[in-house]
Design brief:
This protein has twelve helices and 21 strands. The two termini are 25 Å apart. It is 27% helix and 27% strand. The strands form six sheets. The chain has a six-stranded mixed sheet, sandwiched between helices. A five-stranded antiparallel sheet has the order 12-13-16-17-18. 43% of the residues are buried. It has 418 residues and is an alpha+beta fold. α1 links the parallel β1 and β2.
Length: 418
């Protein structure tokens, strides 16, 4: 039986401070996971690894490639820093990688090539989004003891294999500026934005045959970046065709134009909530007998009839700012996630995940007059959801970090739907 399996590895934070933090990888993995796991597009079983060490990433890739069967379709993606050693060999930078010992602590593209040689799968896509990623082609096409490159050997064996990179050998891979999304700006890197858009909309199906093949996808990415400083590359070795995804534009039985839009995937919403790198006290997938649920449904009538997939749990007491000023009470509908919408506090109302994507979501901070007994002013943080016609604010207390993490979580959920 054929399986479609995807392994997505991303890293934003690094123990070696000489590597700058990246804003895009968390969102890259969330968006790619959403589109690849959709049954009507990718149909992949997706595994995500975020801020993994080099050893953890190497073991995950090795396990995927060694366990794959001949008929399996594999999609492996990296979003991280890329680093060249003194010999201009490319290494993928993971959480514990060190710039002064990159050969021993990075994930060598050469090692990926060695692991690929022992893989039984005949349909493999390797996608690399990092600076200088185009150098991966040298490893995969360079001649070795067998006189032909890895790609050619896989092709001779009857395989379909491709390596897609976000830039050429000397270019930087770019992500949108700013830690959080601005109006009209992508949350993901430029390369992943194009990749996801092509698969989600069906635009990457250039020949309009209902499937996104590897040649389709490679040409679509080339066209998207024509005339730009960053130029994705593709090396295709196709003895047999490889279908990366189906086009959502093809007509489905019983789904006429203008039909009902299905709600977002419960599994994917819970996956994003669980994998979000934050400590907001979220309860994900609460059991039916959770004592908080009746209170939530009573205080937020809008969630009646919807399955609650997650909510924010702050305990059953008031939270005080500077031990004096009450901010919110637990289970008052601060944040409730269902399969169709996120329910916001008090008069904030209800925003579907698609509507959430139309907002500029940022973490903000401001100063307010202090309590008379305290004197002076104090700083408070909040999350601003700004729309051309209205703005909503979510209180986040006096923690800048929590406000930033909450903004990141909402950005990850924005637009989430099949």
């Amino acid at each position: 039986m054929t399986e479609r399996r995807a392994l997505l590895i991303g890293c934003s934070r690094y123990e070696d401070r000489s590597f700058a933090e990246l804003a895009a990888p968390f969102h890259d993995l969330a968006e790619l996971s959403t589109v690849l796991s959709r049954p009507d597009i990718g149909g992949y079983s997706v595994q995500r690894m975020f801020d993994a060490t080099a050893t953890e990433a190497q073991l995950a890739v090795s396990k995927l490639l060694k366990e794959a069967r001949r008929t399996d379709v594999l999609f492996v993606h990296f979003s991280c820093h890329g680093w060249l050693d003194d010999m201009f060999r490319l290494y993928l930078v993971l959480r514990d990688s060190r710039s002064d010992h990159i050969e021993a602590s990075g994930f060598s593209v050469g090692l990926i090539a060695e692991l690929l040689e022992s893989c039984a799968s005949e349909q493999i896509v390797l996608s690399i989004d990092c600076c200088y990623s185009g150098r991966a082609k040298r490893v995969l096409t360079a001649r070795g003891p067998s006189s032909v490159g890895l790609g050619a050997r896989l092709q001779d064996a009857g395989s379909g294999f491709a390596v897609l990179t976000s830039a050429d050998e000397v270019q930087l891979a770019m992500e949108a500026s700013g830690k959080f999304r601005r109006v009209g700006a992508p949350r993901t890197s430029l390369y992943v934005t194009a990749l996801v858009d092509g698969l989600r909309t069906g635009d990457a199906d250039l020949d309009r045959d209902g499937v996104v093949s590897l040649p389709d996808l490679a040409e679509y990415l080339r066209q998207r970046f024509t005339g730009q400083a960053q130029q994705p590359t593709a090396s295709l070795f196709l003895k047999r065709p490889v279908t990366v995804a189906l086009s959502p534009r093809r007509q489905q039985p019983g789904t006429a134009a203008g039909g009902t839009i299905t709600p977002a995937s419960e599994e994917e919403i819970c996956r994003v909530l669980r994998s979000a790198p934050l400590a907001l006290g979220l309860v994900v997938g609460p059991p039916d007998d959770d004592p908080a649920l009746p209170h939530l449904r009573k205080s937020m009538p809008g969630v009646i009839g919807e399955k609650i997939l997650g909510y924010r749990d702050r305990g059953h007491s008031w939270t005080l700012l500077n031990n004096a000023i009450p901010l919110w009470r637990s289970h008052n509908g601060y944040l409730v996630f269902t399969d169709s919408a996120v329910h916001l506090p008090k008069r904030g109302g209800r925003l579907t995940y698609k509507e959430l994507a139309d907002h500029e979501i940022t973490a903000e901070s401001d100063w307010a007059p202090g309590h008379p007994r305290q004197g002076g002013s104090y700083s408070y943080s909040y999350v601003l959801l700004k729309h051309p016609y209205r703005s909503l604010t979510l209180g986040a207390g006096n923690s800048d970090e929590h406000a930033e993490r909450l903004a990141g979580l909402l950005n990850s959920l924005a637009g989430l739907r099949p």
